Amino acid sequence: MSAGLLAGKVALVTGAGSGIGRATCRLLARDGAKVIAADRNLQAAQQTAQELGSDRSAALEVDVSSAKSVQGAVAEALKAFQVAPSIVVNSAGITRDGYLLKMPERDYDDVYAVNLKGTFLVTQAFAKAMIEGQLSGGSIVNLSSIVAKMNNIGQANYAATKAGVISFTEVASKEFGKFGIRVNCILPGYIDTPMVAVVPDAIKQQVVQRCPLGRLGQPEEIAEVIAFLASPQSSYVNGAAIEVTGGLK
Ligand code: NAI
């Protein structure tokens, strides 16, 4: 991507205090966007924003699983740069892995609430703001996962939500096309972030062996594709689910 492609745009990134979300904030800012780093962990979001500079970045606290919190985030985001974000990246996500027969209802509900309902709440609220603001060239990027296709043992809750994100993305792309808003999702493979740090080493080794590129991915390697989907370079990409896995299937 080249610098300046996102000049004049405001982007909102959830999960911006860590991993893929934080790397995405860096690259969107590199490409000229003003970036609102949103996370349930305000301190972490502030760290991301601080790194980018206060003239081109702001931090905000949001719990994507709460409609009230997301509504508040829309109001805060509008205040930050006096215009609604036309780029929204849904990167907030959690895992609560465990075998299905032993999975507490709470672990199912929590993963659903953040990964799938959170994507719905943020997408709905910010798409409305884009439409009301009559913004052109809107782009929403959702984080699914290759686990939506691998369907790993111990990840019934996570896999189901990430498969749901693919369907949700496709529906949104069909409904929002007429407003000039594109909606796409990415299926990352195993990326070296705090989320994957808790995966047992033996499983990570298996993943690396199965991956044609023979390594985990870096958060920036996902963020580059997100920056592309956010930009006019991808103006005819809509409703897509793009695997970024180093070839891991
Ligand atoms: P991470 O654990 O490093 O960061 C997730 C961020 O989301 C954290 O800053 C956390 O505070 C925030 N968050 C969690 N719940 C939230 C809520 N309710 N409201 C607002 N913020 C919340 O995770 P990572 O690795 O950066 O993952 C980002 C996204 O990419 C997630 O949706 C994840 O499922 C997806 N993904 C990650 C992969 C990986 O290998 N790291 C692979 C495939 C998909």
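The two ends are 26 Å apart (CA to CA).
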